[in-house]
Amino acid sequence: MAVAAMFLAGAHSRLLPASIPFRFFGAAVFFHAVAWLALGAGFDLSTSFAGGLGWPLAALHAVTLGTLAMTAIGASLQLFPVATRRPIANLALARATFWCYVPGVAAVVIGMGTGSTAWLAAGAIGVAAGLAAFAVLFVANLGEARGMSLVVAHGAVAAFALAATLVSALAIVGGYTAGWETDRSKLVSLHVALAGYGFMGMLALGLSYVLVPMFALSQAPPAHRGWASFALAAGALACAALAALGVFPDVLGVAAAGFGGVAALLHVQLMREALKSGLRRELGVGFKLVRIAWIAMLASLAVALAWALGVDWPRLPTLFGATLVGGWLLTFLLGILQRIVPFLASMHAGRGRRLPPTPSSLTAEAPLVWHHRCHVTALALLGAAIVADAGALVAIAALIGLAGALAYGVFFAIAVARMARAAVDGGRPKA
User: Which end of the chain has fewer CB atoms < 10 Å from its terminal CB, N or C?
Assistant: First the structure.
């Protein structure tokens, strides 16, 4: 319970206007559905996808830019100020981030799907501007941090990885749109490592040290073991970046997967201990997804190790991408977000009230149950499709995944509507 008390102490004073994080969350929910639609559009090319413009690439970036990074921005702008005990300094820049980033992501997805380099270039400018604005806000907040040093350390590595990811992405887009002479294979490998394990991965690991104990009502994990996991994860990321650039790729690639695997095992062990010792036992279907995501995180590193060892199987890169992005990051995010949304909605609706609405009263459980069933089924079918090289299974997985995404959208819409209704009712004078 110490984590919850520390995290919530003075949290209301550092709440952003609800419109800022919830706009990002709403856009993330929208692009979640777009990703499954794009995957369905490119079902015949998806099982052996290893790069190049087309709907599989559009689906991948609808997830990474549209859902993962979108949620990361919204959550970081709200949760890191609470963790660091420093408010966001510039709300206008936070709002501008949204209006640059969201149209940019939409244009990138359209450009990749249709093969239009003009749309791709225009979208890349918007995405770069939005991420740069977010990075300024994020780094400024971390620089004034006064608490939760382990979370801040993960955030600092994530911020560095974001900057490097942005540079690599612009270089790749320049090769498509401006004919820049680049080693695309090295840049793509670097981009995947920095974006997947660096930016999104380190944010997911860092915020877990706060969110998992807080939702489970447990004590913070032992700091020395958390720092050990962080050091191993940071070392793995450095090895992966060097290997991607061609520096002893065979040795450092294996080292990256090995260090990352030990870091992940230690992290999962700490999280499992937090859940086991927590006072709150029933954490809903969201934490069922989180547990699946932890397994997928370990699986992605096992596949990465096989790749680094030179296992000769043409669909190994595709399986790696699906395990990393869909199995771990997307599944973890969707599980945690269904806890964050009602939690923040309760805090916003409870302003000025002695008894704020509980998060459970703002949560519609039935859509989440349907989403869980659809999401897990879609991922299983997608994995089977890649192994069997069956495009028809991809199409079925995309339809089921889309149904799950729509159910998740219903959950989000109900939570926002109940938040707004509770805020209005709370402001009315009592008879």
Answer: C
**159, 141 contact by CB (below 8 A):** no
Instruction: Return d(Cα 168, Cα 163) in angstroms, integer.
Output: 9
Within-domain flag for 431: no
C-alpha–C-alpha distance, residues 354 and 333, integer Å? 31
Number of domains in the chain: 1
Q: Is residue 430 part of a domain?
A: no
Q: Could you tell me if residue 410 is inside a domain? A: yes
Q: What is the pLDDT of residue 156?
A: 92
Write the CATH number for 154: 1.20.210.10
The amino acid occupying position 324 is: L
- Say if 381 falls within a structural domain: yes
pLDDT digits (tens, 9 = 90+) for 252-298: 999 999 999 999 999 999 999 999 998 887 888 999 999 999 999 99
DSSP string, 15-84: PPPTHHHHHHHHHHHHHHHHHHHHHHHTHHHHTT--SSSSHHHHHHHHHIIIIIIHHHHHHHHHHHHHHH
